[in-house]
Batch of 2 targets.
Target 1
Amino acid sequence: MKKMPNKADPVLGIERLVVQIKEVIAQSGNPQNFDAERWVNEWITHPLPALGGAMPMDYMDTIEGQKLISDLIAQIQSGAYA
């Protein structure tokens, strides 16, 4: 039997990213006037070198892909990705 990929709802994944970005911005000390939803919706549609030129949106239809994108945001926050 062929193993099916772990499909995920992209909309729910994007909502989780918005929450994650809100937390990142709150920790930065200046969340005022920052639109996390708008930022995420723009960010996920741009090719990223960290993804080999793919867009984060390309990864949002699987559980593993959503985790990869969430981890990428965490790396950006920590400064691990430069």
Target 2
Amino acid sequence: MGLIELIFICYVLILLITGLFAFNLNKTQEDYLLAGRRLGPWVTAFSERASGESAWLLLALPGAVITVGISISWSIVGIILGIIASWYLIAEKLRDETAKYNALTIPDYLHKRFDDDTNIIRNFSSVIIAFFFLFYVSAQLHASGKILNSLFLIDPYMGITIGAFVIIFYTLMGGFTAVAWTDLFQGFLMIGTLIILPITGFIEVKSSGVKISEILAMASSVFENNNDYLFKNENFIGGVFIALSGISWGFGYLGQPHLLIRFMAIKSSKDIRLARRIAIAWAFPAIIGAFFVGLVALLHFGPSFFLTVDAEKAMPILTKYLMHPVIAGFFISGAVSAMMSTADSQLLVSSSAVTEDLLYKSRFKNRFRGNPVAINRIVVIIIGIIAYGIAIFSELKSKSIFGIVSYAWSGLGSAFGPVLLLSLWWKKINRNGALAGILTGFFVTILWSNISFFSNIITERFSSFVLSFILTILISIYYHDKN
């Protein structure tokens, strides 16, 4: 066993021990789901960032640079703007509002905010969260298969199985306390990987005499024989659609439940200002670094290499090629960190949507008299197993992590982002407008992504969010004036 493998195994053991240590800290639902609302600004910021970027940042984004090309830069612009917007427009107000309504989940907040005695908003919101998080968690498990295959050369299906076991176990045992504190450690690993790896790669680039402009010219030549620019050689309208499709990644940050619970769990809204600075300072080098990881991998291995090797494995392969085994072990653990820090949060949010909102606050609540934390843990197992099945299917069908994450990101961001933003800043929003926005975001994402004519023009991330935002306003105004 080499040093890389030894460091990785030690890292996984640390995660499992953390889950066991945090087990006795979870005595109530608020402890298990929000760490008792006692997180400090550093833990909140690193947890939000580590969970927000996931394996998408370390695997899918470098892979997209290789296979899509320089036009992926628009996505980077959108991501950075989205992070800034969520911390400035959502974080502080959501912390105060959810505390005022004593809401532990996003569906519960929306239910109480709009005084929905029919329970429709809560039920639909919970179903939407559970539905899209099945795909989102499966993407992280799929990533574990790719990482472990690159590291140990084991079968990807076995890698998915191992990743699923570790994530389900420490989420099951430790709840949000374990999730948040492991995210702090994982966030440091991720940022270290995304700063040091591309810098090391560019030092080698300089020593080899290859110009950065030549690296950029390589992008997109893997599967296409044309030069790729920011607008992919499209006409003006086509170029605008490409830019908007990339920037639309930023919309999703306003409505991702697994990120929003970080804002809800911070000890005080007064801590938001410091946490915001930390999170934004983390985002710039990390996201730009992931972009350059893809470029450096393209330079070192050449376009022809990725005709036979999955481009989304570029980061762990490049790490093993460039770095000392000890450092490579930590960096590859950073990639696993990205995957686990998102999957654990999503498992927790999904289970809370099912238990807290669908079971304990429904008309059938009298049938569920067990310990809420114990019921939550059972639901974590069930959702984890279903997501595991989807991940196995995705590997079988060679689905990309990028595509799966984009689908789930769009569904969650457009269903909740416009409604949350307006509920915090616009007094005229009402129950009918909120319900219209939630359902529009959900259904437009599903329909748009499955109709190639529409999705080839502009991504569902843009169309679903914009339509949800517009309908929320129009329906709210209509019922406000009617009353």
